[in-house]
Amino acid sequence: MAYNHGREDRKWRIWKEAEEKVLREHGVDEAVIEQIRIEDRADFNSNRRFYRWTSDFGEYLEGMADTEQQAEPNTVADLLDEIENETLYQTLLTVDKHTLLILLLKMQGYSTREIAAMAGLTERAVYKRLERLRKKLKPIFYPFGEI
């Protein structure tokens, strides 16, 4: 499975906030806590660089090496602006705003449970919307049937 920076960053932040809470409860000076945070972040960034290049997606990286790196879309509008396939774009325009939000959050590495909480839906509703989206997109990606 490929390294997901967004997911790993969220896990690191949660871990770091819990650690800093314990340190504050034990009376550790804020300057010391900040120094520990800086050093831990440097370790995290070092690990991120390592896992980014050693993950099992070499073919993807080879293909992307020739193209410029693009920032991950942060809004639904950014997501739609990045789409170059006209058929895909037109299909996504027919989808409701909740489904587009679910798609964006899924691309950013959120779990279905997290997406359901953010979108104000049940997990089952999130799964159902993704299933309907897959059915709409299937003719675009597999025009001659499944491989």
Describe the protein in words.
It is a single chain. With 147 residues, the chain is mainly α. It contains eight helices and no strands. It is elongated, with a radius of gyration of 20 Å. The model has no long low-confidence stretch (mean pLDDT 82).
Gross geometry: elongated
Share in helix: over 70%
Structural class: mainly alpha
What string, H for helix and E for strand, traces the elements in order?
A: HHHHHHHH
Summed up, the helix count is 8
Largest sheet: none
Oligomer: single chain
Summarize the structure.
The chain has 147 residues and is an all-alpha fold. It has 8 helices and no strands. The model has no long low-confidence stretch (mean pLDDT 82).
Write the SSE topology.
Blueprint (H helix, E strand, L loop, with lengths): L4 H21 L4 H25 L3 H8 L10 H7 L3 H8 L3 H11 L4 H8 L3 H19 L6
Helix pairs in contact: 1-2, 6-7, 7-8
Task: Looking at this protein, list some descriptive labels.
0% strand, mainly alpha, 147 residues
